[in-house]
Amino acid sequence: MRTKFKKILVRTGIVFLVIIAVGLVTRTIFNYTTGKKLEKTLEKMKAAGEKLAIKEFEPDCRDEDNAALSWKGVEEILQIEREQRGLLSKTLKEIFYNEPFTNGTRRKIEIMAEKNQRALLLIQDTGQKPCFKYNEDWNQIDFEILVPRAIKAIQAFRLYGFDAVIKAENGRLTEALEQNRIGMQFSRKYLEEPLLINTLVAFAQMRAQLLFLNKIAAGKELATETLLNILHELDTKPWRRGLVRSFKGEKILSLETGTKFLRGEYNITGVDVSFWDKIYYWIFRPVLKSEIVWSLNLYSEMEKAAELPYYQTYKIREKYNKRQEDIPWLFKLSGFLFPNIEASMFKEARLEADLNAARIGIGCKIYKNYKGRFPEKISELAPDILPEEPLDPFTGKPYIYRLEDDGFIVYSVGSNQKDDNGRGTWEITSIVMEKDDDVTWREILYH
Amino acid sequence: MKYQNNQKTEDFLNNFARKPAPLELKEKILHEARRERVENRVMTSMLWKVVLICSACILMFLLLDTFILHNQKRYIASLVGTQPVTRIQKQDDSILFLARLLNMSPEAENMAWLKGKLLRKHKSNRNNRYEEFLRLKEELNEDKI
Questions:
Q1: pLDDT value for A392
Q2: What is the per-residue burial (b if ≥16 Cβ within 10 Å, else e) of A414-433?
Q3: Residue ranges for chain A with pLDDT beneath 50
Q4: Partner A contacted by B124 (CB < 8 A)
Q5: Distance from CA of residue B85 to its chain's centroid?
Q6: Are residues A51 and A252 in contact, defined by beta-carbon separation less than 8 angstroms?
Q7: What is the ipTM of this complex?
Q8: Residue B122: is its pLDDT beyond 60?
Q9: A-chain residues within 8 Å CB-CB of B105?
Q10: Interchain CB distance below 8 Å, A11 and B47
Q11: Alpha helix segments (H runs only) across A190-313
């Protein structure tokens, strides 16, 4: 009986030994072939002149020109409590839905602005600087500070925007518009950081600034020079370029993260890695190599798609979604993260829709300064005020423009491509909204 | 008494002629013993061969894998041009930021105040990163996508 047990034990051991040997041989072959594929992909990228390290994204920015240095001061001294954050968020929504800005809310925001006066002054300082370089060490993006600083940026510029609206209401219109312009400039500077999280924050900031701009400028007669300065800030091109750049940045960050894992540097996010984790990473190393190649190719395709107007990307995004659904099961084992690229493209398109609506709105105000009335059609703005008539990024067709008794309304039909009569929604819940998805600029008649 | 009886019995039995043992008995017993030994053997020569081959394979492919990885790592690093950065370097960066910031602004009073704030903050920096992510999601204009 004892011999029989011993025999079973030894033979099971041998079976395991065979399995390990076969597994190891297969893994080594797979490790070699996937490694070669990765090498070839990188060689191809290098030959095409693509950046292969985050360091290569580093902006050429001297300390005295760097807006980020003042910005770090803002991050450190800004004090916005939880309830105050909620108030800013709620009031922003109310402004969007054209609800009145009550005295009580105004007072609370004024107190908040007074308390953060130093921070707001430092923000003003960021506007004077031509470039933005946050990270000191471009060999590595600091994962830990990205999220808190992104939150701070959104909060700071909401407060800064509300402060400008209050100034405009108190008759300090020029100062308010300049403040709003700095807000828009800073939002664009934020695009210089190569990661998608910064780009999304920049989109959110700019969208809020455009809302503040409408609140400050609509229904008010402004000098043509001031309007031209504002128009200059509403160019859509840097935003699309920013999105493409962030896709490139994400691609390289994923490559760097992947290669760090390959080098055995597992604690890149500061989390301790156990012995068994290391064994796990070692076993799935060939899968990781294969996944790096797969993701590099996918990013490259989406980079090209992001360069196109949104309305030309429907089929590409459909294909991308299909590929996302069909990610090989093995790739799920290596735990590689992939951002929501489609949502990012949508957010950029929505911002473009917002920017173009504002460009037309401001363009119409300039037109009125010359002709004494708003134009009958948007096409009248080109080529003297706008180089060409802006197209709706969701449809590729002209914006809907209507003269009304008390002004005009201009809008993009938004993701659902339906005319919702200029009604929009602040909170976006899906890539295609069912209703009330127009992106609008509304102007009130003034004399 | 007991031994005397045994002797008697032996003498009595010696009166009978011995029956010769069957010729094939020895072989039979040897064969049986051999069969039993083979049957009870834990490791056969075939199994030994398997163990040896597998062990050699494991050792050889482990070495080969290390060699492949070493070469590929070196080549990929030369293409990507990355250098490992330690956490300590990252921590030093924040001090560097502070130093830079202090050098930048001419308003000494403001900056001294800022320095105090910064140092206090770095001492008690216990951010829950998951909570921070949730907050960001909440802040990004309330988008749910």
A1: 97
A2: bbbeeebebebbbebeebeb
A3: none
A4: no
A5: 26
A6: yes
A7: 0.71
A8: no
A9: 70, 73
A10: yes
A11: 196-217, 224-232, 237-262, 275-283, 285-307
